[in-house]
């Protein structure tokens, strides 16, 4: 299996969905391994299980420059399928 890359899944999310947010964590230190403080990091680092935690901002979507409407959530769901399809098709079995 190829090594999980946050950059690759984030790139696909930005290409196919309205994903636009970027989180920066205060515990990240340049050049040091990311700690297992979050469930997705712990599962990956300890067991090699790839995970995604996707929190939706119900108040504002930066890439759309607006408060999300019903149609925006429907489009997000439709396009999220493409993200998973493209990402998983690149993972070696």
Features:
93 residues, mainly alpha, 0% strand, globular
SSE topology sketch:
Blueprint: H1 6-16, H2 39-47, H3 70-90
Helix pairs in contact: 1-3
SSE-based structural type: mainly alpha
Average pLDDT taken over every residue: 77
For the termini, the CA-CA separation is 6 Å
User: What share of the residues does DSSP label as strand, in percent?
Assistant: under 5%
Low-confidence stretches: none
How would you describe the shape? globular
Write up what this structure looks like:
Helix 1 (6-16) packs across helix 3. This protein has three helices and no strands. The chain is an all-alpha fold. The mean pLDDT is 77. The chain starts with 5 loop residues before the first helix and ends with a helix. The protein has one domain (6-90).
Explain briefly what this protein structure is.
With 93 residues, the protein is an all-alpha fold. Helix content is 44%, strand content 0%.
């Amino acid at each position: 299996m190829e090594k999980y890359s946050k950059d690759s899944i984030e790139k696909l999310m930005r290409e196919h969905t309205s994903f636009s947010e970027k989180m920066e964590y205060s515990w990240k230190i340049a050049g040091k391994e990311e700690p297992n403080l979050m469930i997705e990091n712990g599962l990956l680092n300890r067991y090699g299980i790839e995970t995604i935690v996707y929190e939706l901002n119900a108040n504002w979507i930066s890439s759309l420059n607006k408060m999300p409407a019903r149609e925006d959530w429907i489009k997000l769901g439709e396009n999220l399928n493409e993200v998973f399809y493209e990402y998983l098709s690149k993972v070696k079995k």
